[in-house]
């Protein structure tokens, strides 16, 4: 049964190309095809309209099947969904980027994705600009609606031929990324947060637990609310149906400036989960 409290209520942001992106999505990292199919269909049933995958994840077939199941069951039309995939580091040459995108569409069973990202800059390869330029061409051909990047920072963003629509970066209370968020905002780029809950490492005793108690919500919900009020897009990953529903419960309350600051006070440079984008992929 669809969750009528959530369906269609997640706010969206307007991208610099005029398209819109829902502020909460479902991440699918480390889901196999079978799990992805089940989770994507269920997520759509309870109100998610934004699904994030990547060629690296090895689950684009399952994600596509989950979307197809939801569409065939009458839960949603394709044009109501926002689907993202990404080009991996070994496919940044122009021809390889095109081949990767076409293979992703084949696996997803879709005519287009809503957002196609260069997954990491890998600056020593020197190919991220070529990859992004090819994504721009794919956008002009209608194979993706928007062109974006992931894990980019100011120096590599400077080298792109145009500002991307989205920059998806690791961002959570332990790594609030204030400087990069402001840099993206200055460029007109929407910042999207991967690992937005920081794998719950900051959910114990401390500011998040205290804020959750104050507003009568769960730690995950107040953390996601922190993202939304910062003007970010968050893509929490969960294969648990209860947590998937919980992660949509970000409406109907607001955090005060003091509560926002308390969560941001958890910033800790040692809390990074993934690689440093200045070096990742070039080691």
From TrEMBL:
This is Aldo/keto reductase. The keyword RNA-binding does not apply. Pfam families: Aldo_ket_red. It comes from Corynebacterium xerosis. Belongs to the aldo/keto reductase family. InterPro entries: AKR (IPR020471), Aldo/ket_reductase_CS (IPR018170), NAD(P)_OxRdtase_dom_sf (IPR036812), NADP_OxRdtase_dom (IPR023210). Keywords: NADP, Oxidoreductase. Residues 24-267 form the NADP-dependent oxidoreductase domain.
């Amino acid at each position: 049964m669809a969750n009528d409290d959530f369906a269609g209520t997640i706010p969206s942001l307007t991208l610099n190309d005029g398209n819109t992106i829902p502020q909460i999505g479902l991440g699918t990292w480390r889901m196999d095809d079978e799990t992805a199919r089940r989770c994507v269909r269920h997520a759509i049933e309870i109100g998610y309209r934004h699904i994030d995958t990547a060629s690296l994840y090895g689950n684009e077939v399952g994600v596509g099947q989950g979307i197809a199941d939801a569409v065939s069951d009458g839960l949603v039309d394709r044009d109501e969904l926002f689907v993202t995939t990404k080009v991996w580091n070994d496919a940044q040459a122009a021809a390889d980027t095109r081949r990767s995108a076409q293979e992703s569409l084949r696996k997803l069973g879709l005519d287009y994705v809503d957002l196609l990202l260069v997954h990491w800059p890998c600056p020593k390869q020197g190919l991220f600009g070529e990859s992004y330029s090819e994504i721009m061409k794919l956008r002009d051909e209608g194979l993706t609606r928007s062109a974006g990047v992931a894990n980019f920072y100011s120096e590599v963003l400077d080298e792109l031929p145009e500002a991307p629509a989205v920059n998806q970066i690791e961002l959570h209370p332990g790594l609030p990324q204030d400087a990069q968020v402001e840099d993206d905002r200055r460029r007109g780029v929407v910042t999207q947060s991967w690992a937005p809950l920081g794998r719950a490492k900051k959910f114990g005793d401390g500011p998040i637990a205290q804020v959750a108690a104050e507003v009568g919500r769960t730690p995950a919900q107040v953390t996601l609310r922190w993202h939304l009020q910062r003007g970010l897009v968050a893509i929490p990953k969960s294969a648990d149906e209860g947590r998937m529903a919980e992660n949509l419960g970000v409406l109907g309350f607001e955090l005060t400036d003091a509560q926002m600051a308390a969560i941001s006070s958890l910033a800790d440079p040692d809390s990074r989960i993934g690689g440093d984008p200045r070096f990742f992929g070039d080691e």
